[in-house]
UniProtKB/TrEMBL annotation:
Cofactor annotation: FAD
Keyword entries, A-Z: FAD, Flavoprotein
Keyword Cell membrane: no
Source species, domain of life: Bacteria
Organism: Virgisporangium ochraceum
One of the record's GO molecular function terms: FAD binding
SUPFAM superfamilies named among the record's database cross-references: FAD/NAD(P)-binding domain
InterPro entries from the UniProt entry: FAD-bd, FAD/NAD-bd_sf, RIFMO-like
Name of the protein in question: FAD-binding domain-containing protein
Pfam annotation, one family: FAD_binding_3
Residue span(s) of domain FAD-binding: 3-339
Keyword field contains Kinase: no
Length: 492
């Protein structure tokens, strides 16, 4: 019997399975589809700290190498360039700030790794239609081509995506929020656009899409991902039949030849479940929260859900921590979901204003942004995803000498403080501290200046298994260090 059943073989479920297996936990992944459907770019911006998580399971380097990192973000209003922002990487990390690579390719690379992971098994054609919990575990009811099948596990991690309505309903969960009226047309185009391969271009109210937005992202292999905001009544089949889709594409690529690789239309939603833990079942990714893609917070936050859940399930499975450790999964990742929803919601209010005040604000900001730096800072086309800080977690030992002072300016990192992701620094022998923290061992990692030069002399960092700082303490306070290490894994 597997210790954990993961429902859903998307990137979140794949990551969770690989991490659980790395912790020595047997895991089975169930997916309703008959096989992997490798189609479309879907989630394309894989953020550095998520690539770092994938590196722990042997995939991050390949995703970074195959991905494309653009260097300049250009923003336009009615055809006029308002400003351009150049991303300057400090070079501290071996990974780029982000990598544009299709979700389909990411899934292929994760599948390859899963196939070489003995403790993880993926079963396609297993549609989960029911969950029954008791004091010993969870019975998962599946529909398969061979008929109904019952599977047992100690715990279930539900990564079944946005459409997992039946699963959420069986768990007694609502999925409250809203869906935006406007649709978004997404196309993957293969074409030659010299100079565009290192630039992201965001158009507010272009003459060729009046009153709405267009976003152009470069991707590997001479492919460009284009997102058009379109009217609620937009009909893709009708647009293709009348030649409108070609005309729309020509407004961007001109008379160059192009190949339409993929297209889709959908609406963005903003939703979250009230609980991400229900007994022996944890929910992660789109199964637990939905947000607009501007800022790339969907897949990235889902992978961070997976890491948080995996190490805690592993600690409970091995008997290293009590079952109550799983309560902190909800505490931490629900707070992360709410932060992401708030940031993505503010972006959508700027992109799709719904009130007169919002429309006036947007018009004023865009009108002034070309010449007014203060207005330029208010233009919101989406802030890239960032790791959540567990400053208020019961696993974190606060220290008023090292406070968290809020998000730093773009391109900068927060000084080491309890709850924050540890800086990407190295030990004296060249080992990355984040990799050291993520080793699958019982004891939380504790480092000082003697081992890690970046740690100030006289200070100690206590690291969680997900590389967040559980505590920043004085090196002489051994009792506090021991207590913080216990608290970091729920043993208080």
């Amino acid at each position: 019997m597997p210790a954990v059943i993961v429902v859903g073989a998307g990137p979140v479920g794949q990551t969770a399975a690989l991490l659980l297996a790395r912790w020595g936990v047997p895991v089975v992944v169930l997916d309703a589809r008959p096989a992997r459907d490798v189609v479309g770019s879907r989630a394309i911006v894989q953020q550095r700290d998520v690539i770092d998580i994938w590196d722990a399971v042997g995939v991050g380097r390949r995703i970074a190498d195959e991905g494309l990192t653009w260097r300049t973000a250009r923003t336009y209003h009615r055809g006029r360039e308002l400003f351009a922002v150049d991303f300057v990487d400090s070079g501290r990390s071996p990974f780029p700030p982000f990598a544009n690579v299709s979700q389909a390719r990411t899934e292929e690379l994760l599948d390859e790794r899963l196939a070489r992971t003995p403790l993880a098994e993926v079963r396609w054609g297993h549609r989960v239609v029911g969950l029954e919990q008791d004091d010993e575990g969870v019975t998962v009811v599946c529909e398969t081509p061979a008929g109904e099948r019952l599977l047992r596990a100690s715990h279930v991690l539900a990564c079944a995506g946005a459409r997992a309505d039946t699963l959420r309903r069986d768990l007694g969960l609502t999925f409250d929020g809203e869906t935006f009226d406007d649709q978004f047309l997404i196309c993957d185009l293969r074409t030659d656009l010299p100079g565009w391969e290192t630039e992201r271009r965001f158009h507010f109210d272009p003459v060729w899409n009046p009153g709405r937005q267009v976003l152009v992202h470069p991707c590997p292999g001479g492919t460009f991902r284009v997102d058009w905001q379109v009217a609620p009544s937009f009909d893709l089949a009708r647009e293709e039949a009348c030649g409108g889709l070609d005309r729309r594409i020509r407004q961007i690529v001109g008379d160059r030849p192009y190949e339409l690789v993929w297209r889709s239309v959908y609406r963005f939603s903003s939703r979250v479940v009230p609980q991400m833990r229900v007994g022996r079942v944890l929910l992660a990714g789109d199964c637990a929260h939905l947000m607009s893609p501007f800022g790339a917070r969907g897949l990235n936050s889902g992978v961070q859900d997976a890491e948080n859940a995996a190490w805690k399930l592993a600690y409970v499975h091995h008997g290293w921590s009590p079952e109550s450790l799983l309560d902190t999964y909800h505490t931490e990742r629900h707070a992360a979901a709410l932060e992401n929803l708030a940031v993505a919601g503010a972006t959508m209010r700027f992109l799709v204003p719904r009130t007169d005040d919002e429309r006036r604000h947007r018009h004023d900001v865009l009108s002034r942004a070309a010449t007014d730096p203060a207005a330029r800072a208010l233009v919101d086309s989406g802030r890239l995803a960032e790791p959540f800080w567990y400053t208020d977690s019961p696993l974190t030992t606060p220290n008023p000498r090292y406070p968290v002072t809020g998000r730093p300016p773009r391109g900068r990192t927060h000084p080491p403080a309890p709850g924050v992701l540890v800086p990407d620094v190295q030990t004296r022998d060249g080992t990355r501290v984040r990799a050291l923290a993520r080793r699958p061992t019982f004891d939380p990692v504790v480092v000082d200046h003697a081992e890690v030069p970046a740690v100030p002399d006289g200070q100690v960092w206590v690291l969680r298994p997900d590389a967040h700082l559980a505590a920043v303490l004085d090196a002489a306070d051994t009792a506090a260090i021991g207590a913080a290490a216990l608290r970091a894994v729920g043993n208080v």
